[in-house]
Amino acid sequence: MRFRVFRAFSRLFSRKRDIVNYLSVADGIDFQLRDGTVTPGFRWPDVTRIETYKIDLMVYDEVALRFSTSTGRYEILEGHAAFQDCFAELEQQFGLSPEWYFQVMEQAFETNHRVLYQKAGVGSN
User: Fold this and answer.
1) Could you tell me if residue 80 is inside a domain?
2) Going by C-beta distance under 8 Å and a sequence separation of 6 or more, which residues neighbour residue 107?
């Protein structure tokens, strides 16, 4: 049941519905499609905004990272392969301490939306 709910939310929050997973690569994130193929996704220099928030799934919360680029917005959830890899990349690429995760986890079943990064000179998406 939990997996089905997660997959439903994953599809709902993916900008491109064919994306079923996100994979961390050296210079960004690639997309794994429903048919199993992997395609180039977005690259770290293309990110204009990073947000984090929790999704209330009634029994537990799912933490999400939303990356905005000029080509779209992509939500990486805790269950995606790239989520854990994002900690190191966010620190290295954007100077973000892993503390963001603990701050968003505070207060169970609250959204706790936060903007972690906004590229200078670029408006919010």
Assistant:
1) yes
2) none
